[in-house]
Amino acid sequence: MRDTLMRVRDLDSPSSQEEDVLPVWLIAGGSGAGAASASATMLVVLAVLGWLTGAGGSESAGVTVAAGLAGWAFAHGAPLRLDQGSVGLIPWLLAHWPLLCAWWSAQRVVPDPEATSPRLRGFGGVRRDVAVAGAAFVAGYALVAALLAVGAHLGGARPSIAFTAFGALLLAALAYLLALLPTYRGHLDALAPRVAWAWREYVPQWVAAAIRPALRATLLTLALGALTVIVAVAVAFPSVTAVYARIGGGVVGATLLTLAQLAYLPTLSLWGASWLAGPGFTLGGGTSVSWGASEPGIIPLIPVLAAAPPPGPMPAWTPIVVAGPVLVGILLGVWCARRADGTWIGRARLTGAAVALYGIVMLVVAVAASGSVGGGRFAHVGVDAVLTALSLTGEVGLAAFVVVGLAGLRLRRTGAGARDRSEPAASPTTTTSTTTTSPTSTKKAVPKKSEPNKAGPKKNAPKKPEKKNAPKKSEDETPGRRLRPRRSKPPQDD
């Protein structure tokens, strides 16, 4: 009886290797939902903290929590609808907080690269476990984001639910890709072999080599714009502190207001870069701040905007600030010259690709750095995206091409000088070798001319048999023609 009970207990209690585990999609979906909830909680805590210290005015606790949720949705690119107008100028630096939370959570659901997994057909041959985990993670994050956007409608600022869900999809997908990067860096064939094959076959090498210099130039342009903003704030520091004193709110209120302004640092950096390039920026309808003059109009009670130049003409030396974009172009030309091959065409096409990519990225950034902060004259605040992108691309591109051209001339002169120095050193050797040769060796063997066949052509000469199944030579195999590269076949899915 005892043996029977022991046998039944062993059957009822599975071993540790046979224990049921949660499916991958459920774990990944829960991680995405947890990342969205954690990042939103932090912003709600900051909003409640400001409300407790009196910086939030006389609003209720529920409205304060809704304001924190609206700020979280706002960080995902969702515009806020107010009673009068809307706010569409997104604080893009604030989006780094939910991105950091999502990236940290996505690292825990990345499948083991050593494990075997089938591949999906029609999706680049990506591993099925990686695709399922990523889709579940993104879906869980976006679902919670939509629910939080619904909760934010209880307050005065109502974010767009559709834009919140779409922004959450993009942010979660980016976080998951960043989590995959350390594992599959340089091993794209193991993750998605068809995508790796298409990249090798259809993307020219000079286009791929132009991506890094273009991104470096973009970051350097924004860094110069941020430096311009910092200098402007330092020059107008008394005016900035006066706005802080007028707003009030104590130490906590001033700290939260400073953090809110820092969230707009990428936007302000693009404004500074646009001012360096020439077009400048606007603070509402009928306003303009550029090289020629400053017409800021009525400035809102935002401390950093008090650093705008006072109304009136700008100094005569102001156009010299174009040296900032020119410096970016010089460095871009140096980077392209180092990565290109030694031919003129190679350097020109790589530089052209880098300048084109730089212009596209700057256009996207300029569009993202503009928007509305209410109704009326504040319906559009920021820069003219097209004019700013064209100005920066023209100035940076012209300087880059000049540097690449000068580098090509320098290399050409260096190569010509090296050949001139090598020719005199080689001439004595050739003369000595020619003088020491024997007279008999200088005589060239004159081939005898073949005499014509006096007997005439043979009438009944046997013909060579023709090969019926002999393969015909293609145009690529004919002598004197350059062989065209043939594309390899894409890898087959498992």
Automatic annotation (TrEMBL):
<keyword id="KW-0812">Transmembrane</keyword>
<feature type="transmembrane region" description="Helical">
    <location>
        <begin position="385"/>
        <end position="409"/>
    </location>
</feature>
<feature type="transmembrane region" description="Helical">
    <location>
        <begin position="21"/>
        <end position="49"/>
    </location>
</feature>
<feature type="compositionally biased region" description="Low complexity">
    <location>
        <begin position="424"/>
        <end position="444"/>
    </location>
</feature>
<protein>
    <submittedName>
        <fullName>Uncharacterized protein</fullName>
    </submittedName>
</protein>
<feature type="transmembrane region" description="Helical">
    <location>
        <begin position="214"/>
        <end position="237"/>
    </location>
</feature>
<feature type="transmembrane region" description="Helical">
    <location>
        <begin position="244"/>
        <end position="265"/>
    </location>
</feature>
<keyword id="KW-0472">Membrane</keyword>
<feature type="compositionally biased region" description="Basic and acidic residues">
    <location>
        <begin position="463"/>
        <end position="480"/>
    </location>
</feature>
<feature type="transmembrane region" description="Helical">
    <location>
        <begin position="130"/>
        <end position="154"/>
    </location>
</feature>
<feature type="region of interest" description="Disordered">
    <location>
        <begin position="413"/>
        <end position="494"/>
    </location>
</feature>
<feature type="transmembrane region" description="Helical">
    <location>
        <begin position="61"/>
        <end position="82"/>
    </location>
</feature>
<feature type="compositionally biased region" description="Basic residues">
    <location>
        <begin position="481"/>
        <end position="494"/>
    </location>
</feature>
<keyword id="KW-1133">Transmembrane helix</keyword>
<feature type="transmembrane region" description="Helical">
    <location>
        <begin position="316"/>
        <end position="338"/>
    </location>
</feature>
<dbReference type="Pfam" id="PF19877">
    <property type="entry name" value="DUF6350"/>
</dbReference>
<feature type="transmembrane region" description="Helical">
    <location>
        <begin position="350"/>
        <end position="373"/>
    </location>
</feature>
<feature type="transmembrane region" description="Helical">
    <location>
        <begin position="89"/>
        <end position="110"/>
    </location>
</feature>
<feature type="transmembrane region" description="Helical">
    <location>
        <begin position="161"/>
        <end position="181"/>
    </location>
</feature>
<dbReference type="InterPro" id="IPR045931">
    <property type="entry name" value="DUF6350"/>
</dbReference>
